[in-house]
Amino acid sequence: MASPTTRRIVGAAMTGATYSAAALAIIPLVAILGMLIVKGAGSLDWNFFLKSAVPVGEAGGGFANAIVGTLLIVGVAAAIGVPIGVGAGIYLAEFGGGTVGWLVRFVADTLNGIPSIIIGVFAWTLVVRPTGRFSALAGSFALACILVPIVARTTEEMVRLVPNSLREAALALGYPRWRTSLTVVARTARAGIVTGCLVAVSRVAGETAPLLFTALGSQFFSTNLLHPVAALPLQVYVYAVGPYEEWHRQAWAGALVLIILVLLLGIIARLATRSRHERA
Amino acid sequence: MTALANDQPAIRAPRLSSAERRRDLRIINRGDVVYRVALLALALVLPLLLVTIVGGLVVGAWPAIKQFHVGFLIKSTWDPVAGQFGALPLIFGTLYSSLVAMVLAVPLALGAAIFLTEFAPRWMRAPVGTLIELLAGVPSVIYGLWGLFVLVPLLRDVIWPVIKPAVHWLPFFSGPFYGPSVLAGGTILAIMMLPYVAAVSREVLRAVPPAQREAALALGATRWEAVRTVVLPYGRAGIFGAVVLGLGRALGETMAVTMLIGNRHEISLSLVQPGYTIAAAIANEFAEAVSGLHLSALVYCGLVLFVISVLVNAVARWLIWRVARGSAAGSAAI
Amino acid sequence: MLDRATIASAVTAPTPAPARTPWEPAPVPAPVPTPVPRLAVERITAWYGTIAGIRDVSLAFEANRVTALIGPSGCGKSTLLRCLNRMHELVPGTHVEGRVLLDGHDIYASDVSPIAVRRTVGMVFQKPTPFPTMSIAENVAAGLRVGPPISRSERDGIVERALRRAALWDEVKDRLRDSPLALSGGQQQRLCVARTIAPEPEVLLLDEPTASLDPLGSARIEELVHELKHEFTVVIVTHNLQQAARVSDVTAFFYLGTLIEVGPTAQLFTAPTQPQTEAYVTGRFG
């Protein structure tokens, strides 16, 4: 057994070590956010938000097409994925005690662990190859595949949080099972479910890999679901690895917009759940 | 009787006759059945999706599987023009870069988790915890952008000249360092892996009953000794699970890696050489694949990555489940 | 410690019904109008898997009377209560044997829907459970949504009447649209009572309704029970002996899943016939 002094020194050293570890863990976040602001904020002018990409060499291009494209793809993906995910989640929470429930849960967790690039390959095989074209729809499909298992699990958790006493109270009033589930249980869990969806959508909005060969990206402004479309993270990638300084500058700006979008959604989601807890 | 009796007796809820009640009952049962079936249908989309994904991958990879069989996994030649494909460098690179990431990230993540649960002052716990969790939400492409223009120049122009004389003789650091490298890729993977491992480890450590800690402290241990001898062993399985979970993420990371790793089909122990991962190769070559066989080879790689990821994630979840008992924290962290 | 004198002084006017086997109606019309059993259970056994929560219980609940079910923890009184509105079967692995007769009809008959039963037999739970996403008025009207369609004004009228009968109207009439979560525990429980009586069930089941309330709130609920019995048949489960003595007309004592004794409250508390009953009501065990 070491002497008391040695033990105290070791203890202090390890405490210091953990402080440093935590500090080192946060440094990249600070560094990245800082760099984004430093390099990107300057380029956020009206041109950036209102103009689409222009051919190299010309000035005045912007990210309008990419921003709109992201809104389009993510919107359609949410429209497809959220209903399925929420429905699956409610099923798991209300009826999911048996084998089927266990299976669906296991599958959902497995799906959540699949790299998003593989989902992109899958979407390509299922949508792009048969139709012979890249499209925003294929991109939305890929993103929806990522959304569904996330939303299913978070919805399940939120619905499970509803106390059983509320279910019993509704059933004792003569509510059929379906009405209890829909108008009492799901309604009570509504805020939590929405939060879960917001978090999932924000995660999906930042995904690039699944869009690489589904939506493909584009220089043009388009809202046609059947054509390739630009997307914010995708354009940031293309511009970042491109050879032009002008592109690099815009990539930083695009990245700043992207991170603001993602962080904003995350913060809103957090605030929504916290205020619920404080009120109830 | 109280004054209540003076209400208008006319306003009473109407009562159903027994015939009406009987008819109601059939409708009620039907409603329940419809509801349950509809939800079940939505829930079954998930297994259907998984099966379709596996099927789609196998179908897409089939030409390559038929041509190269399992040898695909141990050959190194990647020549799209000649139609020769071997995925060994990709598999090696995937595993090697993830290993580098783990070596860098796990001690820091664990340290941060221990900090948050044991040593941090109360007021610091929530903000620092939130900051670390925010890191997990940063999109991959932003990490890549930052890595490309900040990390790589930092490694190449600042750190490398300093450590080169000391380590150049090691096989891990041999060869010229141009920037894009396994080291750069591994480092960015470490930064991306860190929040997951830290967050899940924190939940695992939080699940350790306070009584255990207190028992150690009551016996005269310092706080660190209590952690080392009681808390860490108790949460060992869960922490291991957290690490494996982070590994699962690192294996599938695409954008940041492809921007930093150099994208070369080559097997080398040297960290300063370019490398390649399956995910990066697919991202790079898929859209401009030279031939159907090339595409199929890429999908074959994807299938391999799929299998590895699913296995690693399953192991991670099982380990975490054992400690966190399938709590909301555990599944939320995943 | 309870003794007979204390209990006797807490009991209100004793019911004049003659002592007889609990579930048989009186064979001859007596000068005092005999209470008709509104609800009766015949040889009920309720299973949790392989364990019987209550065994072979037969009991009648007289109309417009309050019947209290008392007994130590785990004696099966709540289980019996939940058999009366078919809530027991909601727990997986449970089943019920025997008959429960509501106005002579077995509610466990194969062609009877449990949901229809629950609309006729209402229940108030131990913990107040207002629906958090509905306003106070919407909470009270919640039970009406699954009944026959009624107009808006009818609904508002019913809500007001229910709140008046639950002695809550004056306190909430200006904030019917507000969230029920702002109400105190006692007020929330009265809201639950209003919600339960609004659709006019025949029978009211109260499962330890004052267990989570302070004394003031409990007193108000007990007053309520006195008034409600004029319109409903009330069955109340309570582990508070004084409360049982205060509010009920008939008391049934359970122990380890069997019905030990049932009788007019005054008589059960002052002159119980079974030794276990006496031991329980005098506080020798609980």
Radius of gyration of chain A: 23 Å
Which fold does the CATH topology of the largest domain in chain A refer to? MetI-like fold
Please give the domain count of chain B.
Answer: 1
* Total helical elements of chain B: 12
Strand content of chain B: under 5%
The total beta strand count of chain B reads: 2
Number of helices of chain A: 11
Which class do the helix and strand fractions of chain B yield? Answer: mainly alpha
Number of folding domains of chain A? 2
Derived structural class of chain A: mainly alpha
Helix content of chain A: over 70%
**Uncertain ranges of chain A:** none
Element order of chain B: H for helix, E for strand: HEEHHHHHHHHHHH
Description of the molecule:
The complex is a heterotrimer of chains A (280), B (334) and C (286). Chain A has 280 residues and is an all-alpha fold. Helices cover 75% and strands 0% of the residues of chain A. Chain A has 11 helices and no strands. Chain B has one domain: MetI-like fold (Orthogonal Bundle), CATH 1.10.3720.10. Chain B has helices at 18-68, 88-119, 122-136, 140-167, 182-206, 210-218, 223-234, 236-252, 255-260, 278-285, 292-324, 328-333; strands at 78-79, 84-85. Chain B is flat and about 70 Å long. Chain B starts with 17 loop residues before the first helix and ends with a helix. Chain C has a domain at 4-12 and 35-123 and 202-281: P-loop containing nucleotide triphosphate hydrolases (Rossmann fold), CATH 3.40.50.300. In chain C, the strands form 2 sheets. Chain C has a 6-stranded mixed beta sheet, sandwiched between helices. In chain C, strand 1 (37-48) and strand 2 form a beta hairpin. The relative contact order of chain C is 0.19. At the A-B interface, helix 1, helix 3, helix 4, helix 5 and helix 6 of A face helix 1, helix 2, helix 3, helix 4 and helix 5 of B.
